[in-house]
From TrEMBL:
Its cofactor is [4Fe-4S] cluster. It holds the Pfam family Radical_SAM. Keywords: 4Fe-4S, Iron, Iron-sulfur, Metal-binding, S-adenosyl-L-methionine. GO terms for molecular function: 4 iron, 4 sulfur cluster binding; catalytic activity; metal ion binding. Gene3D superfamilies: Aldolase class I. It comes from the Eukaryota. InterPro entries: Aldolase_TIM, Methyltransferase_A, rSAM, rSAM_sf. SUPFAM superfamilies: Radical SAM enzymes. This is Radical SAM core domain-containing protein. GO terms for biological process: rRNA base methylation; tRNA methylation. Residues 111-245 form the Radical SAM core domain.
Length: 245
């Protein structure tokens, strides 16, 4: 394992506690890094002296980088190709829309422009769905919670993100712990996304769905059916045999 991301929640918390540093400094560090992505640790003000040496020796501000950014012709969608520190790539996609379009109850809709970020949780995927490009790659590796959160940080430099959907590369519930830690980070300071604005999509891993309901109450769940008939689902989604409708 390489140098860890400052956004790797469990690792940062454990190292701070081990060194006797108050963990309430962590959100403050995140906020500074988000606003100053090219900063050095020594530039962050008002930390205990032990925190600076710990950060320098154990953590990086980012362990991933944006390799390329591609905008759709209409400017509504932006795809980020994110390079991880192991050399692998994942994709994150910003989707912009205007909630005022159309009518609700015969009246104009309230609201305004919004951005939703679709993020990845794995490099590749072992679910093997026939229609999915990621599934054809096979499973490569899980992302850490920090690598998941960093996608949100990278995207936030381009657009104000209102919603997050785990519908990118990978089956989120096969990387359960990292996804749960990432969601907890996103719903806390400084991101402060309501759990109601975060959606985790799954092929339907039943035991993990039950656990998720207890660990992250209020989170949105999306189940990928792709067919209303179990026999058809089994043909296009091998995992459906283990997790029937």
């Amino acid at each position: 394992m390489g140098v860890r991301s400052i956004f790797d929640v469990p690792d940062v918390r454990a190292e701070f506690e081990k060194a006797g540093i108050n963990t309430h400094f962590i959100p403050f560090i995140w906020k500074y890094v988000i606003k100053n992505p090219n900063c050095e640790w020594d530039e962050i003000p008002d930390l205990p002296s032990t925190a600076y040496s710990l950060l320098r020796s154990k953590f990086k501000t980012f362990t991933s980088s944006v390799d390329s950014v591609i905008n759709s012709n209409d400017g509504v969608t932006t795809k980020l190709l994110v390079k991880l520190q192991n050399g692998a790539f994942v994709e994150a996609v910003i989707m912009r829309y205007d909630t005022r379009l159309g009518k609700y109850g015969g009246k104009p809709r309230p609201g305004g422009p919004r951005s939703t970020l679709c993020i990845s949780s794995q490099v590749g995927c072992k679910m093997g769905c026939k229609f999915c490009a990621t599934g054809s790659m096979g499973f490569k590796n899980n992302l850490s919670s920090g690598e998941i959160v960093e996608q949100l940080v990278h995207a936030s430099c381009l657009s104000q993100i209102r919603n997050v959907v785990f519908m990118g590369m990978g089956e989120p519930l096969n990387n359960y712990s990292a996804v749960v830690e990432a969601v907890r980070a996103m719903s806390g300071v400084p991101f402060q996304l309501s759990p109601k604005r975060i959606t985790v999509s799954t092929v339907g891993i039943i035991h993990a769905i039950n656990k998720l309901h207890k660990d992250l109450p209020g989170l949105n769940l999306a189940v990928s059916l792709h067919a209303p008939v179990q026999d058809v689902r089994c043909q296009i989604m091998p995992a459906a045999r283990a997790f029937p409708l």
